[in-house]
Amino acid sequence: MQDKLEWAEGRYEEISEQMSQPETIADADRLARLMREHAQLEPVVTAWREWRSLRDRQAQAEEMLQDADMAEMAREELAALEPALRQKWHDLQVLLLPRDPNDDRNVVMEIRAGAGGEEASLFGAVLLRMYARYAERHSWRFEIIDANMTELGGVKEAVFTLSGKGAFRRMKFESGVHRVQRVPTTESSGRIHTSTATVAVLPEAEDVDVQILPGDLRIDVYRSSGHGGQCVNTTDSAVRITHLPTGLVVTCQDEKSQIKNRDKALRVLKARLYDMYQSQKDAEYAQNRKAQVGTGDRSERIRTYNFPQGRVTDHRLGLTLYQLDAFVDGDCDSVIDALVLADEAERLRRLSGESTP
Predict the structure, then answer these.
(1) Which of the residues bear the PTM N5-methylglutamine (predicted)?
(2) Residues 318-351: pLDDT tens digits?
(3) How far apart are CA 75 and CA 78, in angstroms?
(4) pTM
(5) What's the 3-state SS for 213-266?
(6) Distance from C-alpha of 339 to C-alpha of 22, rounded to nearest angstrom
(7) DSSP code of residue 173
(8) Closest by alpha carbon to 261, among 221, 211, 233, 214?
(9) Nearest residue to 111 (alpha-carbon basis) of 136, 130, 137
(10) pLDDT at residue 356, rounded to an integer
């Protein structure tokens, strides 16, 4: 591990020098690549230098133990340095963990009502608003691609994107079955019903990831249905794209413009194809995704929202919070942070061949 850290520091200094050279400054593409690599290495190099500084202080304190007048001070210094060194080394291990190549991507998310009829659709609307509020808290862009709503304002199916720093890294843990327990507004006897909604999380594909031939697509246009204003229902603005080789179908009717709907639908199609091809090509990657926090199967219940008791329980963590109102208003970081940490802990556990110096 120290060899990796020394290499990272050397590479960081090399890039710093290259970035200041006139020929690099004149090459915008090369400069951008070097700046990205420099930014990725910077936290590793900073932590490595801080750890070395702590080790130097530790060595000095150990020398002071030989001096009777300084021994007590040295023991106090060593007692404080030991946990600091352990924590800094842990931080370095986390920084050196192999990254999910999709972590910096934007996200395409899909919500579908499950068991529970209209109540499941109303719960889908709660989840849609929750993710919109979460995006707002993180200054991400939230954009509806397509939504199939019920007359009561429920969501049968919704597809949307989240764009911003760290979107996939944090949202990938939301994939799975979400369960709600509450008394429906249509329930006269006050009985608690259990309903479900399924959330799928896909990394948004870039053009270089998925190549789609024009002949592989069938594009149909039709009049939009549902909310959206006069133009939505009077023009053929809605778009349905079928990827003929795979049979994947994507629709978009959120915009009044057919061109905008087509562009949005293509983004979702590319994300679905990227997810499918990647899973087929790299079975080990898919297995790692499932093992991140002990789950990953979209058919598996991951979280329960119990409204009568005001609690939310994440079953992967065994974590229960009595802050349901705040959680469904987008204050989800307490759970998502715990999931990210659990993922790091599991990957550290699997990391072999490394030991604390």
Answers:
(1) 230
(2) 999 999 999 999 999 999 999 998 888 887 777 6
(3) 5
(4) 0.67
(5) CHHHEEEEEECCCCCCCHHHHHCCCEEEEEECCCCEEEEECCCCCHHHHHHHHH
(6) 44
(7) G
(8) 221
(9) 130
(10) 44
The tokens describing 181, both together, are 């327990």
State pLDDT tens for residues 162-212.
999 889 999 999 999 999 999 887 666 778 889 999 999 998 887 656 778
Backbone angles phi, psi at 140, to 5 degrees: -90, 160
Q: For 105, which DSSP code? A: S
24: which 2 tokens? 């690099």
* Nearest Cα to Cα of residue 318 among 293, 296, 300: 293
Show the tokens assigned to 144.
């509806």
Partner residues linked to 163 by β-bridges: 141
- Per cent of the chain over pLDDT 90 is 48
How far apart (Å, rounded) are the C-alpha atoms in residues 195 and 154? 13
Residues 220-271 have pLDDT tens digits of 988 776 544 444 445 678 899 999 989 999 998 877 888 888 888 988 998 8
Query: In the chain, what are the helix, strand and coil shares in percent, each to the nearest 5?
Result: 50, 20, 30
Angstrom distance (rounded) from CA 281 to CA 285:
9
Q: Which residue has the tokens 């179908």?
A: 249
Mean of pLDDT over the chain: 85
Measured at the alpha carbon of residue 338, what is the angle toward residues 334 and 342, in degrees to the nearest 5? 175
Contacts (Cβ under 8 Å, ≥6 apart) of 53: none
* DSSP assignments along 109-148, one per residue: EEEEE-TTTHHHHHHHHHHHHHHHHHHHHTT-EEEEEEEE
